[in-house]
Amino acid sequence: MSELIMHTPVSRWQRVKESTIWYSFTRDWVAMVSAAIFLLMVGAALLAPVIAPTNPYDLATIDIMDSELPPAWTEYGDERFLLGTDDQGRDLLSTILYGARISLTIGVFAVLLQAALGITLGLTAGYFGGRLDSFLMRIADIQLSFSTMMVAIVVLAVFQASFGSELYNRLAMLMLILVIGIAEWPQYARTIRASVLAEKKKEYVEAARVMGLGSRRIMFRHILPNCLSPILVISTVQIANAIISEAALSFLGLGMPVSEPSLGALISSGFQYIFSGSWWITVIPGVVLVVLVLVINLLGDWLRDLLNPKLYKG
């Protein structure tokens, strides 16, 4: 009987419940509330075509006579529009759901691009060292001397002026992902390089070299898995930063077009009406953006404390 108990397989869910991450998560109410809000917002954004009252991209469902209607819960609100309408007559709730999906898409894919570039270059610099390390880190230093917003504004403005607004509007999402992603790779590269410098001196790396494994396999199959903790922490913070960068660029008119607005574009389009009484066009998307970035940062802080033995208190 004891042998049967000893060899009973443990389910994946049981292993998760017994892990340190789950233990820490279930005892941190800030992390639990932040995760719940984040999952709710992501789920609502992904299911926007299903749960949104209208399709803000379908001109047939938009009536300009419904423009700037206040939210349904205010004195002069229309019960058809829970959060009111924008200056074009689009249902603000539907537009926020679709806009949040665009903002999250740009944030996630920009961070994936940052991580791909930064991890590859950071691993290469840290593992091989020497002149290659100095060269790559000097490039990173030069890029870090320019702010992401400055680089993005220059590149996007030049592209828009050179190829016209029509082409830019079609490629706006791709351009934002590329610019934000390429501008932020040094954050990953410098962090990964520091971890690789410590890991490559350990015995398992020497053993892999003795076995005749190639440098690429050693870097990506042996060293990289031991450097994932800082990558996870950086990624949560960088997603929030990418969403803010996209919102700022959209506010400046260099982001998503009016026909496919992100949260930043919504805030920008309604800013001119905020003093005329139509405050909801800017304020409500602004609150959604602030809450989204806040919960991502709170989850990043929790993950940083968990993965740092000096900060984690159990």
UniProtKB/TrEMBL annotation:
It is found in: Cell membrane. One of its GO terms (cellular component) is plasma membrane. One of its GO terms (biological process) is transmembrane transport. Signal peptide: none annotated. InterPro entries: BP-dependent_transpt_permease (IPR050366), MetI-like (IPR000515), MetI-like_sf (IPR035906), OppC_N (IPR025966). It is a multi-pass membrane protein. Residues 100-300 form the ABC transmembrane type-1 domain. The chain crosses the membrane at residues 29-52, 102-130, 142-161, 223-244, 279-300. It holds the Pfam family BPD_transp_1. Its main location: membrane. Keywords: Cell membrane, Membrane, Transmembrane, Transmembrane helix, Transport. The keyword ATP-binding does not apply. The keyword Transport applies. Belongs to the binding-protein-dependent transport system permease family. This is ABC transporter permease. It comes from Endozoicomonas montiporae.
